[in-house]
Design a protein that fits this description.
heterodimer; A: about 350 residues; mainly alpha; Topoisomerase I, Chain A, domain 4; about 0% strand; globular; B: about 210 residues; Helix Hairpins; two-stranded antiparallel ribbon; 2 strands; rod-shaped
Chain lengths: ~350, ~210
């Protein structure tokens, strides 16, 4: 029965930090200030007082709350929903694998890699097993043997040809969407349609970045060909492929017109704001759709997305505070900023 | 005999020495003019380079501020792991050749970027922009260091040339001219003495003939 996780998601939804609180956190001048402001929130119980905070210790606190929220939903959900959530969250696995591949390629020692990767409890891949590998090829072998992410030979050939992890990264992202969509099929139709819209929106945003990077920085044709995730929503694969050979910014904007704001920012080389704008589009869509969802499985998914956005905002505020980014700039880069809420 | 002067030549008041010395003075005066020209050229070159440096440094400072501002935000959005992983795979292939270039005989380094890190087809789409900006910044930094070294070498040589020009202008040439004048006076005195002596001898001979 999915009622329990849905009810819990409703309960936890009230614990998400409202935009004005996040903006208040963005004004913090140090990590100590940030933790003091976080004390009365859900994050407070993980804060150890008297210890000098570091970026990694604050990030760990933020991650633990996200982990806690997600684990409540995973534990209480029926098998099919559970499987979907776990596969959906394997985006963090993909991030880890891509980073491990890059670190291994650069011959970074295993102990250093371990310090740098995410360690959420719900991750499916045995990171330590991957790290035992001595080379990228060996990792690819382990991925094929122990996970659902077997990379086909033509992609491995591209890796060898261009001596680049990028083809593997593109393929893994694409495969991630394949697996998520395959798990999605197991959910009831109404939920499936709602969730699918958001997933396709996520794929669109990823595709925009790949297409515009291909247009601005000219990826090799073979790599550009595998860069796109085929689960598009508002942009067709035809348009995406045409962006690669577009002659002007105007043409790119026309081809990607449903996401004019994001594309404009990318073309003006303001990738950070473009990334945030992409998240905002997803967040705003979720907040719009959530109104019509009350006791549906989709509500769980919506909640996970909003919790993930909150986590991303808090990660951003943590690092930006430590790097002395001005409060104004921090607020401008919040996914949850009040000015952007619908 | 006059004591040894600053330019280290023992003076002999003979006509041969005088002619030789006069040639030397002329030669040194020509050298002085050339050094003066070199000094002026180096000064011009230095001024030009300093003006250029000012522009390049301003541009560089602005770019560094922009790139770092963008990078800090990107780092905060993507996280340490993604950024470090991406940075780690960028091939460390920077190869800069230092070629000598002569400005008025002064060898200044001229940096030529032979090989730069290849980032195409290697960087994730969202990081491609910042990677390009860093690459451009690297080129400006190389240009900046080239100009700084060039200015240092030119100003060192200018200082040396200036010292030489001043020494020639204020000490060596006036002292040599003074010596030349001294030899001239001595030779004139000798000539006058010789003339007087001949005149006396002529008078004695004429007296005897009478």
């Amino acid at each position: 029965m999915a009622e329990y996780p849905i009810v819990r998601a409703h309960g936890m939804m009230t614990e998400l930090l409202p935009p004005n609180v996040l903006e208040g956190l963005a004004v913090a001048r140090s990590l100590e200030d940030l933790l003091t402001l976080l004390l009365p929130t859900k994050y407070g119980k993980y804060i150890e007082r008297g210890k000098a905070p570091s970026i990694s210790s604050v990030k760990r606190i933020i991650d633990r709350v996200f982990e806690e929220r997600v684990s409540v939903l995973i534990k209480g959900a029926p098998k099919k929903v559970q499987d979907f959530i776990i596969v959906y969250l394997s985006k963090f696995d993909i991030e880890n694998i891509v980073n491990i591949l890059k670190f291994k390629k650069a011959e970074i020692p295993t102990s250093e890699i371990l310090e740098k990767i995410s360690k959420f409890y719900f991750l499916r891949f045995d990171v330590e097993k991957m790290l035992e590998a001595k080379s990228v090829e060996e990792i690819l072998h382990k991925i094929a043997r122990y996970t659902d992410y077997k990379i086909p030979d033509y992609v491995i050939e591209l890796y060898r040809k261009y001596d680049s992890i990028l083809p593997l990264e593109f393929y893994l992202k694409k495969k991630y969407f394949d697996l998520v969509f395959s798990e999605l099929r197991e959910l009831p139709r109404d939920d499936r349609e709602r969730i699918e819209k958001i997933l396709r929106l996520e794929a669109d945003i990823e595709n925009i970045f790949s297409a515009t990077a291909g247009y601005l920085y000219k990826y090799s044709e073979e790599i550009a060909k595998i860069a796109f995730i085929p689960y598009t929503y508002k942009i067709s694969m035809y348009s995406l492929k045409h962006v690669l050979s577009a002659k002007s910014n105007k043409e790119v904007l026309e081809l990607l017109s449903p996401y004019k704001n994001v594309v404009n920012l990318i073309l003006n080389r303001r990738e950070t704001l473009a990334r945030i704008e992409g998240y905002r589009i997803i967040k705003n869509r979720v907040r719009k759709d959530i109104v019509s969802t009350f006791i549906d499985i989709a509500f769980i998914y919506y909640f996970i997305i909003l919790a993930e956005m909150e986590m991303r905002d808090l990660h951003f505020v943590t690092i930006a505070t430590q790097f002395n980014v001005s409060p104004k700039e921090k607020i401008a880069h919040l996914i949850y900023a009040t000015a952007t809420s619908d | 005999m006059k004591k040894v002067p600053a330019y280290g030549v023992r003076i002999m008041p003979t006509r041969g020495f005088y002619l030789e010395f006069k040639k030397k003075v002329k030669y040194i005066e020509e050298g002085y003019k050339l050094l003066e020209m070199k000094r002026d050229e180096l000064t011009r070159e230095l001024r030009e380079n300093l003006n250029q440096l000012k522009i390049v440094r301003r541009e560089c400072d602005k770019r560094i501020a922009d790139v770092f501002e963008e990078f800090r935000k990107l780092y905060a959005i993507l996280g340490e792991s993604t950024i470090n992983a991406q940075a780690a795979i960028i091939p460390k292939e920077l190869d800069v050749h230092i070629l000598p270039k002569s400005i008025m005989g002064v060898h200044v380094p001229f940096l030529k970027l032979k090989k730069e890190p290849k980032i195409e087809d290697k960087i994730s789409p969202i990081l491609m922009g910042i990677a390009r900006k860093y690459k451009e910044l690297l080129k400006i930094l190389i240009k900046l260091s080239e100009m700084e070294i060039r200015i240092e070498v030119i100003s060192d040589d200018l200082e040396r040339t200036n010292r030489m020009v001043n020494a020639l202008e204020k000490i060596v040439i006036p002292e040599m001219k003074q010596t030349l004048k001294y030899i001239e006076d001595l030779l004139d005195e000798d000539m006058l003495e010789e003339f007087t002596r001949i005149k006396l001898v002529r008078d004695i001979i004429l007296e005897r003939r009478k």
